[in-house]
Amino acid sequence: MFDEHLRYSLADSQERVKAAGGHISNYNGVRVMGVLAMTRAIGDKYLRRYGVIPDPDVCSVPITAQDELLVLASDGLWDKVSNQEACDIARYCLNNSKGKGAKPDVASRIAAKILMTIAMERGSRDNITVIVVDLFRSGFSDLNYQVKQDIKQEQQQGQHPLARIAEAPPPGPGPGPSPLLRHDQDSPGG
């Protein structure tokens, strides 16, 4: 779906690091200050003064009925496995596992484990996190289509698509402290 990782060819990231007094070197891979292999990180707070930021680079892509799977992974995988290869391997694992009777969530875990193993066997020395989402599981495409139709109908009727969510009572037994950290709180490691 996306071009191969070009983490440091993005001009804005390079400019941000240089403007903050940092530098990008090629030591055991391309790294900020010779340490971190990315310019955006939740942790590594000590590198903030050199232009490393905790803000994710986000894009939204509509899911269509033709989309089969989603591979979410850290650079420990992407440094050793191309996007196309990861998708091909994940597709094979999902189809093979489900063909042998595995439930979709089990098949997704198998696919993720195999991708992680391949990255390790190819010499990845970085942290490796892999999640494979089977978009065909349990009629997801049909559900996605129905949600889109509901939103379209609400918009045609002049209703804001999120109005029913905003009006809904909060989930759970009632008000209480949130298990999530607020944006203005420091996270442990970050």
Report what the structure shows:
With 190 residues, this protein is mainly α. The protein is built from six helices and four strands. Strands 1-2 form a two-stranded antiparallel ribbon. α3 packs across α4. The longest helix is centred in the middle third of the chain and has 18 residues, at 104-121. It is flat. Residues 1-9 and 161-190 have low confidence and may be disordered.
Top keywords for this entry?
single chain, 190 residues, mainly alpha, 4 strands, flat, disordered N terminus, disordered C terminus
| Widest sheet, order of strands | 1-2
Based on secondary structure, the structural category is mainly alpha
Which range does the strand content fall in?
5-15%
Largest sheet: 2 strands, antiparallel
Tally of individual helices: 6
Binned, the helix content reads 25-40%
How are the secondary structure elements laid out?
Layout: H1 11-19, E1 24-26, E2 30-32, E3 69-73, H2 75-78, H3 83-99, H4 104-121, E4 130-134, H5 140-156, H6 163-167
Antiparallel strand pairs: 1-2, 3-4
